[in-house]
Specification:
Distance between the termini of chain A: 22 Å
Helix content of chain B: 25-40%
Largest sheet of chain B: 6 strands, mixed
CATH architecture of chain A: Alpha-Beta Barrel
Shape of chain A: globular
Strand content of chain A: 25-35%
Structural class of chain B: alpha+beta
Strand order of the largest sheet of chain A: 2-3-6-7-9
Order of helices and strands of chain B: EHHHEHEEHEHEHHEEEE
Oligomer: heterodimer
Largest interface: A-B, 42 and 43 residues
Number of strands of chain A: 9
CATH topology of chain A: fumarase
Number of helices of chain A: 5
Largest sheet of chain A: 5 strands, mixed, barrel
CATH superfamily of chain A: Fe-S hydro-lyase, tartrate dehydratase beta-type, catalytic domain
Distance between the termini of chain B: 7 Å
Shape of chain B: globular
Strand order of the largest sheet of chain B: 1-10-9-4-2-3
Chain lengths: 176, 291
């Protein structure tokens, strides 16, 4: 049985999840890869995070989508996860900003998640499938500066099927 | 899937790229379905079922199956008597730019010094074009979109000649184990043995153009391919590294003569999204596109 969740995620929402559970996630998801993580953490340390970034209970998605622009509106064509391992160096800082869920592929260090957040795995390469759960592009940050893959895309998702791969007890499907 | 007809060269490149990124070849789908049927691990089944679903959506909607549409690699066999020789490079470059906006593809060409993304998948040495001259008046081009996650696991090792082929097997197994779920298994491995360093990597990448299940015509290499495939699948890494029976769909080996003192081995990883397309351009402009 899949657990239905909606962002922002509360501490209780994530604490009851166990590695191996399937979640259907709805709400807002922020894409962020290497460069975006660096920038978010830098701006947050100066108290200068831009308005649309509300990281309290937020879900960050390690993803660089394929995007089509039509009549001035962006449409997500394909948007599977990228390898999360590269973002390990930012993990503790990004979770300290209130992020409670990270979506990616390949896993991360389990320890930083303990007590406060979960890691959701989505199938790598399943970009066309992920795009079916993405209903709307709400905003995009730093598109000119970073380009399409590294920009922060603020997405509205509905019932995105995810696998809890690291839970708040630090239990990880990658370390079995 | 085959497309034929008189077609503009740039259009032909765009269509071949679209076919490659939106449609996973039949041989690969069959191998993934077999992997699904013989799997018992629930996490592996979750991933394999998502993989088969996304392949189906890509085909139906003509959109990229995976958002990482990669760096485009073109392997060109150019007949020296083709009247199109002078246009080929222009078609490939223009076709890449148009495919980026029309398919669309993700822009993936980044300047090493400034970090700027060119926005159209064209940059210094990108797309990658491997040229080979052949006899006759036909041009044959293979398109291989290569994603970053799998490419990050690719490697070159310069072995000692006396270590021989057993050492090749050890290097491959060690590397596959190290990479775990990162290259998006079930993977396909291209292995290049011999040559100089550059040759080993090129033939390893070229090996990925062979069909899944197709063995090297040299029986000794065919045997080595199967041995390595069995050992890799024995590792239990499984789809996306979460355990399971299928870690690799196939292993492809190509060889080149080597220097007496050298024994290069290159391993090029390909993710399950084993994307490829071929096109052939006749002297009269007739184009054929297939996978």
């Amino acid at each position: 049985m899949a657990v239905k969740l909606r962002t922002p995620l509360s501490r209780q929402d994530v604490r009851r999840l166990r590695a191996g559970d399937v979640v259907l996630l709805s709400g807002t998801v922020y894409t962020a890869r290497d460069e975006a993580h660096g920038k978010i953490i830098d701006l947050a340390s100066k108290g200068e995070l831009p308005q649309p970034l509300d990281l309290n209970g937020a879900v960050v998605y390690h993803c660089g989508p394929v995007v089509r622009e039509r009549n001035g509106r962006y449409e997500i064509v394909s948007a599977g996860p990228t390898t999360s391992w590269r973002m390990n160096r930012y993990l503790d800082s990004i979770l300290s900003l209130g992020v409670r869920g990270v979506i990616g592929k390949g896993g991360m260090e389990a320890e930083p998640f303990r007590g406060r957040a979960v890691y959701f795995a989505f199938t790598g390469g399943a970009g066309a499938l992920a795009a079916e759960s993405i209903k709307e592009v709400k905003d995009v940050l730093w598109l000119d500066e970073f380009g399409v893959p590294e920009a922060v895309w603020i997405l509205e998702v509905r019932d995105m099927p995810l696998l809890v791969a690291i839970d708040t007890e630090g239990s990880s499907l990658y370390e079995r | 899937m085959i497309m034929t007809g008189i077609m503009d060269g740039t259009d032909a490149i765009v269509e071949a790229v679209r076919l490659a990124v939106a449609s996973i070849p039949e041989d690969t789908i069959e191998a993934l379905k077999r992997a699904y049927e013989r799997e018992e691990n629930e996490l592996a089944l979750f991933n394999l079922s998502n993989i088969l679903r996304t392949i189906e959506i890509g085909r139906r909607r003509h959109v990229p199956v995976c958002q990482d549409t990669g760096i485009l690699n073109f392997f060109v066999d150019a007949g020296v008597e083709s009247p199109h020789l002078r246009h080929l490079k222009g078609w490939i470059i223009d076709g890449t730019k148009r495919a980026t906006s029309e398919v669309p593809l993700r822009p993936n060409a980044v300047d090493v010094l400034t970090g700027r993304n060119s926005g159209d998948n064209v940059g210094r040495f990108v797309p990658v074009i491997h040229w080979r001259l052949t006899e006759g008046d036909k041009v044959r081009i293979a398109v291989l979109p290569k994603g970053g996650g799998s490419e990050n696991c690719s490697m070159l090792e310069m072995l000692t000649p006396s270590d021989g082929l057993d050492a090749v097997k050890d290097v491959v197994i060690r590397r596959v184990r190290e990479c775990g779920g990162k290259p998006c298994p079930p993977i396909i491995l291209g292995i290049g043995i011999g040559g100089g360093a550059d040759t080993a990597v090129e033939i390893a990448k070229r090996a990925l153009l062979r069909r899944v299940g197709e063995r090297n015509p040299d029986g000794r290499l065919a045997e080595l391919e199967e041995e390595i495939l069995d050992e890799v699948n024995g590792l239990g890494i499984g789809p996306m590294g979460l355990g399971g029976r299928t870690t690799a769909l196939d292993v492809k080996i190509e060889v080149a003569h080597r220097h007496p003192a050298s024994f290069p081995v290159a391993i090029v990883f390909q993710c399950w999204a084993n994307r490829r397309a071929f096109l052939e351009i006749e002297a009269d402009g007739e184009v054929r596109i297939w996978q």
